[in-house]
Fold this protein.
Amino acid sequence: MATQSVRDGRRAGFAMLVGLALGMVAANSPLADIYAIVHHLPLRVGAGTWAIEAPLIEWINQGLLTVFFFLIGIHTNHELTRGALSEPSAAMLPASAALGGMIVPAAIYLGVNFGDTVALRGSAIPIATDIVLVLGVLSLFSGQLGPAIIAFATAAAIFDDLGAVIVIALFYGSFDQLWPLWMVVGGLAGLFLLNRTRRASLVPYLAFGCVLWAGLILTGLEGAIAGAIVGFSLPLSSFPPRATARAERRVSPFALFFVVPIFTFFNGGVMLDFFPADPQAWSVAIGIAMALIVGKPLGLLAGTLLALRLGIGTLPPGTSMRDVIGVALLSGVGFTMSLFIIGAAFDATPIAATAKLAVVGSSAVAALLGLIAFKSR
């Protein structure tokens, strides 16, 4: 399983980077005007008060990316119920590492931007690790690394992705209308009842997930998190193992090789202005860079050492602290979730463009540091 995940990570990471590169080229070439027009192309679905109208970029971020969030939800669900994290003792170490890797970078970002209410909306940007790109980097050492350290890196990334989903749900978005809250409540209640009755059919979960998604969108919240909620609500123990594995295999290629590259193409295409005039943009960029390059590794290491010191977790077999340091350096590769949070925090503003460049540049530095750490191993 670990070998397959690493192999998928290599291909998916390459596809993601291709999408980013094409977006950068489109935004900084004679195609820039066409790119901008397509980027904001208005689309309307529905009729009357039940219609949802938004530019194409919102349909991608709130609609198409729901599939990726669903994959995160079902993968987390699988690991917690059947996989490497099913035993509490096995889950505690990466969970503690992920928690440290969320708290410390957020604190660093808050410290850099303290007192600036606009910049503080981006506090969650550096909390999540991009599991796809991390696995892509680890794939370069697949012949040297044991499955235990790969499982640790994957589990830590899963936990902080789950944490990012929770943060997005709680702190991003605003209540534009109150009546769609009943749709949100109905969708959540339906998923809860299906889970409690152990219903082993995917269709009703998807139906209530659509209700939840529409309610979140109409309420003004982040609709994409509905995918993670649906994936996490599935009672996998009631489904035949082959059925869930088959469903994940079908969703994964579409999410990793179509959804994520499309997302990076439209979200990563920013003007290469490395010297923004806005001091707020500078402050946000510095906060992101320090949080990802310094805060993420320190936080992950602190969380790991704390769990070991308290005796609530143990290092995976055949793994040393040197391996953990390599994973910690790689944890600064924040991409998909970070870009998503930038859109939620700053919309299409100059600050958002600078923040995206900071995420891309900092992630590249973190990947390089991780490569050096594992290469010198």
Notes: The two ends are 24 Å apart (CA to CA). The CA atoms of residues 71 and 248 lie 7 Å apart. The chain has a mean pLDDT of 83. Strands lie at 42-45, 52-55.
